[in-house]
Amino acid sequence: FEIAAEETEKKSVYAEDDRQAAREELDGLKQAFEDAVQGENGEEIRRRVGNRIRELEQGVVAMEERAMEE
Question: Which residues are CB-neighbours of 58 under 8 A, at least 6 positions away?
């Protein structure tokens, strides 16, 4: 995620691929999170990790929007 953000800021030739990789990883992480919260310790996982997932999602969306503006 950090590399994608840096490359987007620098407007490098790798930025688009890095953003796509960040989106794919975020989607995988969100799926793993959803699977985990369905389990035995779901509420504990949601409480501890849910905010971080939302922060990452907001960051990726902001990065994608910033790239579209340029």
Answer: none
